[in-house]
Design goal:
11 strands; 2 domains; Rossmann fold; globular; four-stranded antiparallel β-sheet; 8 helices; alpha/beta
Amino acid sequence: MHPNWFETFFEGLALDMWRGAVTPEVTAREAAFLASRLELQPGMSVLDVPCGNGRHAIELARRGMRMTGVDISAGFLDEAQRNAPEIEWVHGDMRKLPWNGRFDRAYCWGNSFGYFDHDNCQRFLEAIAAALKPGGRFILESGAVSESLLPVLQPERKLRIGDLDFHSRNTYDAAEGRMDITYTFTRGQQQEVKPIHQWVHSAAEIRRMLRRAGLEPLAAFGDVEGAGYALGSPRFIALARRAGPV
């Protein structure tokens, strides 16, 4: 498997499945959480990375934010550009952000933090810290954190989303702290099989990584209702702040 599998994963049936997996109501609730916990105010410059098809960025732009979205998937960015051409969409690698002190706020929503090995995840956090203004807030969200993922891990999972059948076969490599997953997407006679890696970190490990990057952890939540993070929480949401005056 190519280590940068994510460069070509979000195409074809996989892109269709991800597009249909989240309702507008879920996006609205998540955007409201981001607006509240990041303490967003109209006119703030906000970085969404990786932005996918821009569902959060578009919602926050409606609330008056000056949004920039970064993603490596050309398919996602094409859709985002069609839906919101007024937003700045950038095709790029989230580990190599080109900005220094530009953004008031930033967030990384979804499991993409674990797409890389430990060193590259650390590199991403350092890129975020560099892109933020001093005192800028950052949210990191993932369901692939050990306290959330491992208690409910199943070797296989099957779902139907619209006219798509989705199947995953999951193996956890304890020595590496990594999930090896094979996804199969099927629509009628069309089928795509895509293997991926997902590195798994503990909540404490992520807190240490944030600090090493110059991002001071402020809180950890287990859902968008604001419950504190604990063993078995469905997702991990870390709120942090770049060092420096607010």
